[in-house]
Design a protein that fits this description.
Blueprint lengths: L1 H13 L3 E4 L16 E2 L9 E2 L2 E2 L3 E5 L2 E6 L4 E10 L9 E8 L2 E5 L3 E2 L5 E6 L5 E8 L8 E11 L5 E2 L19 E2 L4 E4 L4 E5 L2 E2 L5 E5 L5 E3 L5 E5 L4 E11 L2 E11 L9 E4 L1 H4 L5 H13 L9 E3 L35 H10 L3 E6 L16 H11 L3 E4 L10 H17 L6 E4 L18 E3 L10 H11 L11 E3 L7 E3 L5 E3 L4 H13 L4 E3 L8 H7 L2 H7 L8 E6 L2 E7 L5 E7 L5 E6 H4 L4 E6 L4 E7 L1 E6 L4 E8 L13
Parallel strand pairs: 16-23, 24-25, 24-33, 25-26, 26-27, 27-28, 28-29, 29-30
Antiparallel strand pairs: 1-13, 2-5, 3-4, 5-13, 6-12, 6-14, 7-11, 7-13, 8-9, 8-10, 8-12, 15-18, 17-21, 19-22, 20-21, 22-23, 31-32, 34-35, 35-36, 36-41, 37-40, 38-39, 38-41
Helix pairs in contact: 3-4, 5-6, 8-10
Amino acid sequence: MSLICAALMTLAAMQVTKSLSVSDLDLSTIKQGWGKAVKDRSVTDTPLSIGGRPFSKGVGTHAKSVFKIRLDGRAVRFHAWCGVDDNARSERASVVLRVLGDGNVLWQSPRMTWKQAAVQVDVPLKNVKILTLEGGDGGDGIDYDHVDWADATITYSGKVPLAFVPPLERPIILTPPAPPTPRINGPSVYGARPGHPFLYQVPATGRRPMRFSAKGLPKGLSINPENGQISGRIEKPGTYPVKISASNRLGLATRTLRIVAGGEIALTPQMGWNSWYVWLGHVSDKIMRASADAMVSTGLVNHGWQYVDIDDCWARVPGSKDPVNGGPTRDASGNLLPNAKFPDMKALTDYIHSKGLKAGIYTSPGPTTCAGFEGAFRHEEQDAKTFADWGFDLLKYDWCSYKAEAPGVEGLKKPYALMGSLLKQQDRDIVLNLCQYGMGEVWKWGKEVGGQSWRTADDLGNGYNLFRDSFALYDRQHLESYSGPGAFNDPDYLLLGQVAGPNGTTQPTQFTPNEQYTQVSMWCLLAAPLILSGDITHLDPFTLSLLTNDEVLAIDQDSLVKAARKVSQVGETQVWARPLEDGGTAVGLFNLGDDEATVNAMWADVGLKGRHKVRDLWRQKDVGTYSERFSAKVPRHGVVLVKLTSAASSGRARRRPTG
Ligand code: GLA
């Protein structure tokens, strides 16, 4: 026996290290932004050459490219020379290359441009299961970004590494349909300023016709019994517990909504739709009205979705003669003029409000917006008043073209503090969403300058990575400590369903079905604004199911507003948890890796003891009572989202409400 063992050990020690030319792998597995990857030649089928240096072997690709190779821990090193292929022939060619091992960045190139000499990458791969070679854009779009991985080799022992395309999972609907009996959804608390126009649509699912009533409404408000819209103006500040009822032929639902009439608005994160990622510059009054209609016809409004927000491109372009976007940007008195696609802003918000919904608008503190339209610079006071007169309920305030007037954080705060105080002076509740991509750690001062939410990073749609960047940022900066009622970190919009394709067309989101579950689950755990930015007028059943799971949405809207933090990480699995108003705990078991994994949520990490009931929130099913831990198999890039409730108290130990 010992002889056999010894022989085996010698054999293992003798396992020969071999070298594989990466270009000998199956290159059809490479996903890239233009053309097809080419073996031993550039993406345009010319001899490989970087900075004048020719290479006989390698892979010619085009940004953004992703090449996945399964190593299963048997590889030793990856080596290559890389850069922009000489045949790119453009100053606009700029790339950043990365080598990742199991999702961790092992190496990253500097920003590389045309004619620049090849850079060498040589990284150890010990224990790496999946190697990813990424050819990314250098920040100016992917045009001419011809990426070469020249002389790329993997040294390994045992079975040959294998290029693969991660299997695309099927979009499985987990959300059960809402029952036909009435159910009141949405937050349990709502903030409004006294004396301002008040509009709150009671979100309720169940068969129509439905009748609504409300007991204990503050003076000045009334409810429309037919459609459940509460409106009016609250006369006096105070906290008003209102008992809301919704009934239909099948039953009755009641629920208490605490209306807090004080200085704070947006006590829970805003939920709605924004035009940007689907319509870009094609947005119009017609599209906005159709989107408001869809908010109602899809039933989203019954689950608490409220805001219908115009993003950039509704104003006019300074100096432009274009018949649609051109013409004077302001009238003789300096008032903003919308472009030809928006004939009457007040009529548009009236239309949106008539459906119980709220309207949002966008501008920038600079002279022009990110897309080059008229901004608010030097007209802030007038523009804030215009937005209020037009009837808007939310302003997204970008940063583009603004030049800070003071160094550091003071300069960053200034335009937002100005707009924040101007909005507060209006005769309306207007939510302020700061959009300056996280500069100067905006989460530390976004609320102080009058914001209710602030974008924490770059645009998710431009390749800011859902997993690698978003999860890492929220964990590293402990962003949970900066969120609370009326103060939300905003990781950008929900990229679900159909998003913008070329020339005003739409195309499916870049996220796989599992990643879409991950996005919604994570956003809810983070107490992030939930703003869909896919085509709301064409929602497929799967996308709709992601947006209408009331138990999942209740996590986002929980009135305690304690955002989740990462409580543990093992390899590529992470557990995030947040406490809830009713004493329960929401826990997300995430798998950021490329293979299915078992994820363990340990009570000790979450800060719990004893026995807890576990409810799967996407399936809306109890899965059992557990002690010490809950483990689940989680698919690649997927999530299992659960709620833990103490088996001893059955969750009756309510936390003290805030707000
Ligand atoms: C920036 C913002 C986006 C969008 C565009 C509009 O990029 O981050 O969300 O508003 O501007 O031009």
